[in-house]
Amino acid sequence: MNEFANRIAVDWHKTLERALALAAQSQGKGVLVFDLDSTVFDNRPRQARIVREYGAQKGLPALTRCQDFHFTNGWDLKHACVAAGLSDEDAESIFRDLKNFWGARFFTSPYCRDDIEIVGAPRYLHACVKAGAKVVYVTGRHEEMRAGSIEAMARCGMPVPGGAVSLMMKPTLRESDDSYKRVAHQLLEELGPVLAAFDNEPTHVNDYAARFPTCLPVHLATDHSGRPVTLTERVISIPHFAW
Ligand SMILES: [Mg+2]
Predict the structure, then answer these.
(1) Which domain, by its residues, includes 86?
(2) pLDDT-derived band of residue 143, with 50, 70 and 90 as boundaries?
(3) DSSP state of 232
(4) How far is the CA of 59 from the centre of ligand 1 (A)?
(5) Where residue 112 falls among pLDDT bands split at 50, 70, 90?
(6) 69, 87, 112: which is the final residue of a domain?
(7) Which of 54, 112, 205, 237 could lock 7 by a disulfide, CB 3.0 to 4.6 Å apart?
(8) pLDDT band at 171, cuts 50/70/90?
């Protein structure tokens, strides 16, 4: 949970029901948008695996015991290393090397396969399809990660691309997530009216709210990049998809 936890209303689950009702009303035309990382997928097992592999390669026993619950401060690798038992000084001294090791693995299909679902996401996504929505995953992952992403969706029991379900990805790793998501807005508009958009990143959910004034902009209060961005007032925060 993050600093947006206090934005979550007691009846937050009604937002999920509202999006399903909008999908049913749109009779097959409406679009429901879902980000992947920290929205429908929890990446912490992938993060922890990379840290363990680094620990094994560098002979750092504390890091070989790293687990997903050591990532309590978003994607903060240094924080996770200390939580796993490394001293502050050692975490500082290895950080640059670890970040390079991480970067060479994190954005690859074989490592996507460690991802697990955000609680309730598979069931909710299937309910969206059943309600007649076009479900579109819009992610900052790039095309090279398509195979691993689809494999993780299938393993978690989520709808996979095909038919009413599609997956929009950055062409390459180089593009920024922010600008790619704005490109995706145009593609979404061509698919049909955007009824709701779910994303954990405050910048991205604010962008959906601005671009699609009639959509439900839904923020997952999981974790985020850490940029100090205030959520637009009409954005609704939810903790997960188990309603
Ligand atoms: Mg995300």
Answers:
(1) 44-112
(2) very high
(3) P
(4) 32
(5) very high
(6) 112
(7) 237
(8) very high
